[in-house]
Design brief:
Helices cover 51% and strands 12% of the residues. By secondary structure, it is α/β, with parallel strands linked by helices. It folds into 2 domains: 171 residues, Rossmann fold, CATH 3.40.50.300; 74 residues, Helicase, Ruva Protein, domain 3 (Orthogonal Bundle).
């Protein structure tokens, strides 16, 4: 194409048109607004298979938090790195509070994290601010870290302090949360993020191209849907490849077939 691709296959990259997630984002807006008005609710964890757009959702909600002047921190958990070290290293958001949060390390992970969250929450409350943590790949948290986080959030909720968590991870987090603490269902809302229904998947394919006067024939759309199965990441990747190898303003089924092998090769790398 003569134009830059409107598709964004990068991990967590926000597409210019977010299809099929309006209801989820709207609910997140309500959670944030309630918290901003002093009515904290349950924390939210999105779960689903890879490629359904969980990280994109976190990024969209972060943008909403920023618009509401909410202090937030994005944390991505890695399999062999400590969540606790990550959350305690960067306290840059405390600059937005009237006074820095302080706490004493006792050696008990659960007690220390609870003290830290309570101290932050009280500072935020005095400054009439809200703090949000956006935690991606939450399934990689160690059991003792997960238990400490849940205990800290439990105490924060008891004190009605303005701290909220939005998390995202693979479906196994439901089992992990249940095994670590029995009362997680009272602290968290677990929302499944699945592949897009056909109508939304069609929009994810067609809408970004419309701004450039490019159209897809019906058979071309069906062919893309057949290979991507409604997974947002795969739609972005496949359409980006089509854009890269096609020079026509009307994309046909033959154009899709021409690049299918390239898509399948890249898809295999993604799955690994």
């Amino acid at each position: 194409m003569n134009y830059a691709s409107p598709y964004t296959p990068g991990a967590g990259a926000m597409p210019p048109y977010l299809a099929g997630r309006d209801e989820i984002v709207s609910k997140a807006d309500k959670y944030l607004l309630a918290m901003a008005k002093g009515y904290p609710g349950r924390h939210v964890v999105y779960y689903g298979l890879r490629g359904v757009g969980k990280t994109v959702l976190l990024n969209v909600i972060e943008k909403r938090a920023d618009e509401l002047n909410i202090l937030y921190e994005h944390i991505e958990i890695f399999e062999k790195r400590s969540f606790i070290r990550k959350i305690t290293e960067d306290q840059s958001f405390s600059a937005g509070l009237s006074e820095p949060s302080s706490y004493v390390m006792t050696g008990s992970l659960s007690d220390d994290l609870t003290d830290m969250f309570v101290a932050m929450g009280k500072c935020a409350e005095k400054a009439n601010r809200v703090i949000c943590f956006f935690i991606d790949e939450i399934q990689y948290m160690k059991d003792d870290e997960m238990e400490a986080l849940i205990s800290a959030l439990h105490r924060v909720n008891q004190l009605r302090l303005p701290i909220m968590i939005f998390g995202a991870g693979l479906p196994k987090i439901l089992r992990i949360f249940g095994e670590v603490k029995s009362y997680t269902e009272r602290l968290f809302v677990f929302e499944e993020i699945a592949e897009l229904p056909e109508a939304a998947a069609r929009e994810a394919i067609i809408k970004p191209a419309e701004d450039f006067g490019v159209q897809y024939e019906e058979n071309a759309v069906k062919e893309i849907l057949k290979w991507t199965k409604g997974y947002p990441y795969f739609i972005q990747e496949f359409c980006n490849i089509i854009w890269e190898y096609t020079e026509k303003d009307i994309i046909e089924k033959s154009d899709i077939e021409h690049v299918t092998s390239t898509f399948l090769e890249r898809k295999g790398v993604m799955i690994k």
